[in-house]
Design brief:
With 373 residues, the protein is of the alpha/beta class. It is built from 13 helices and 12 strands. The two termini are 20 Å apart.
Length: 373
């Protein structure tokens, strides 16, 4: 079975690209998989053979993706959507083209503001969304809110599976991450960690303010792991805020996925202060390692997460005090085998490929039998 995945692949690292990297590395042991990255124009040293960079201007991306989709002769084409509004103009064309080549299409929706985006759509985009849903063999929302939105646009429940974006990671230490942990331990400090794009919506300013009001702030090392997009004026303001607070602070840029996993596994607390979100891979990864997690309540969070009121630093401050003094009320639990997302995705691939072969073999007037469905 041939699978083509369309989406970003590291570098740079990020929630979606790391998800795709782990999906590729895990499933390529058993399936023939290639990744078409529409963001980077050139190959990166060390790229696996089946990672194809298709970036460039919109016209170049369009023709590169169509060429490789036609050439691949895939059974399944799996699209990963970080932002639906950006995907719809050209993405719908890719889905139609993939269907014309005989491939079944899978969509994973990663967007943290998916419902908000759809609510803002005009009639044309809403019609395009309905067509996208109709052409997709299976849709994978990363949370229930996304599923509920899609059900209003013609998605049949049997054609959807909610699968959180977290996939079990690999860890690799390096000098730049081990030195952070060693320095914190040498001062007998607790390591507090947050991560994401360098944008205001990630709420780093709330974290700094909340930590600066802790009585034991001298015993805390605060680390922000920034990747991809950066709002430089915001980060400059954040740097001044940190300096005025007197917090022991460090910021990293674009850590490799394995480095971030190693650092996260050694953290004493992970904080997610976003004002909107998707599934937040880092939250599930922290819980996977047994690291306590505090996150805003802007979306439903996994069991084991201590939640605070979105955009309220005082609520965050209270949650940090609660965890550091008393621990979590609902301790993190490791991922169960029955919840293995890789197996669920693999099962979707096999089921869709089987259905597509039956469909292509049938005459138009022949219906599917219950067993085939």
């Amino acid at each position: 079975m041939k699978i083509t995945i369309v989406g970003g692949y590291p570098p740079p690292g990020g929630g979606v690209s790391i998800h795709i990297q782990r999906l590729y590395e895990s499933l390529s042991e058993h399936l023939e998989i290639r990744v078409l990255d529409p963001y980077r124009p050139d190959q990166v040293p060390g790229d696996p053979e089946n990672i194809i960079r298709c970036g460039g201007n919109r016209v170049a991306v369009l023709f590169k993706l169509l060429f490789h989709l036609a050439r691949s002769r895939s059974d399944i084409v799996h699209f990963h959507l970080a932002a639906l509004s950006a995907f719809l103009p050209f993405g719908l064309l890719f889905v139609i083209f993939a269907r014309l080549t005989g491939a079944a299409c899978v969509l994973t929706i990663h967007s943290g503001s998916f419902g908000r985006q759809v609510a803002s759509f005009g009639p044309f985009r809403k019609s395009a969304l309905r067509l996208l849903v109709a052409l997709s063999g299976h849709i994978i929302p990363v949370n229930r809110e996304q599923l509920d939105t899609l059900l209003n646009y013609g998605l049949k429940p049997q054609n959807a599976t909610v699968i959180p974006a977290f996939l079990p990671p690999r860890k690799k230490h390096s000098k730049r991450v081990t030195s952070l942990v060693d320095a914190a331990h040498a001062k007998q400090q607790k390591l507090f960690l947050s991560s994401g794009n360098g944008l205001p919506l990630y709420g780093y300013h709330h974290i700094v303010r909340a930590v600066s009001h802790l009585k034991n702030r001298a015993s805390i090392k605060l680390v922000f792991c920034i990747y991809n997009e950066r709002d430089e004026p915001y980060l400059a303001r954040l740097a001044r805020q940190v300096e005025e607070s007197g917090i022991d602070f460090h910021m990293t840029s674009n850590l490799a996925a394995e480095e971030f996993s190693w650092l996260l596994s050694h953290a004493d607390l992970y904080i997610r202060a976003t004002d909107r979100d998707g599934d937040a891979v880092a939250i599930r990864e922290a819980l996977h390692y047994g690291v306590p997690v505090i996150a805003s309540d802007c979306v439903p969070r996994p069991a084991g997460t201590e939640q605070f009121e979105t955009d309220n630093w005082q609520s965050l401050h209270a949650s940090i005090e609660q965890i550091t003094e008393n621990g979590t009320a609902d301790p993190p639990t490791p991922l169960k085998k029955a919840e293995n997302p890789l197996q669920k995705i693999s099962d979707i691939y096999h089921c869709l490929a089987r259905k597509e072969k039956i469909r292509l073999a049938k005459k138009p007037e022949q219906p599917f039998t219950p067993e085939e469905l």
